[in-house]
Amino acid sequence: MNSRQRRGVILLILSVLCAFGAFAGVLSVISDVKSKVGPEVTAYRLKDQVAPYTTLSPDQFEKIKMPERWLSDNAVTDLAQIRGKIAVTTLKSGSLLQSDMVVDQPALQPGQQEVAIMIDSATGVAGKITPGSTVNVYATFEGAREGDPDQSKIIVTNAKVLDVGKLTALEPDEDDRTREATEAVPITFALSTIDAQRITYAESFAQRVRLALVAPGGDTTVPEQDRTYELAKDK
After folding, report:
1. N or C end of the chain: which has fewer CB within 10 A?
2. Cβ-based neighbours of 100, under 8 Å, separated by 6 or more
3. Domains of the chain
4. For 50, which DSSP code?
């Protein structure tokens, strides 16, 4: 082997050693990054803003992957955790879902029952009444006999809203074509037996049924003498 060949072999060996050194350096960097980042896990991010007390469903979230060490301890990694839950506050679009953002849906108390009625969208819903809200229910009635005054009554106080359905177009009754088609929302309440009877009676026979949102923590007691209103008696 002449000197030129020896130099070629030496350069080849040096090139191989450099290649191994570079490869080892890359592996070291990758290993270091993995040790700092850690394994990835599943998390869920909100697609759009969710209003408080809204019932949660899987289609409101998108699945993402991120390092486990970057997640908080209360991050939701399984959407089964939101089954039967509602948002406790406004959930912002793009936020990672965490367990302290949700609570159980309001449950029925002993002696209560679920009752759903249709509420005209123009008489008090307006998107502000949501599951978990507390409302007073007002109804207006015509006088029982000709000449009797019309009355407005508070028929149920502190009614707990369990669910708010989708806006639905209603056609006028066949025997009352003078009324225009309206839009209504099915509202489900948790009520005692007597309040369930009152609210279903009002839905059937009242001229209008209106919901009044009760402020959280406020005094919602309405004296009996203040539950019926007649214009002629207003002082």
Report:
1. C
2. 74, 88
3. 40-104 (3.90.1210.10), 113-233 (no CATH)
4. B
Please give the helix or strand (H or E) that residue 45 lies within, else none.
strand 40-46
20-44 tens-digit pLDDT = 667 666 666 555 555 555 678 888 9
Q: What is the pLDDT of residues 160-187, one digit of tens each?
A: 888 887 777 766 555 554 445 477 888 8
DSSP type of residue 172: P
CA 6 – CA 61 distance, rounded (Å): 66
The count of other CB atoms within 10 Å of the CB of residue 46 is 19
Gap between the Cα atoms of 56 and 117, Å rounded: 22
Q: Decide: 212 and 156 in contact? Cβ < 8 Å.
A: no
Distance CA 192, CA 64 (A): 44
DSSP string, 176-228: -TTSPPEEEEEEEEEE-HHHHHHHHHHHHH-SEEEEEEPPTT------GGGSE
Question: Residue 10: what are its φ and ψ, rounded to 5°?
Answer: -65, -45
The answer to whether residues 159 and 135 touch, using CB atoms and an 8 Å cutoff, is yes
Q: Are residues 197 and 225 in contact, defined by beta-carbon separation less than 8 angstroms?
A: no
Residue spans of alpha helices (H) in 75-166: none
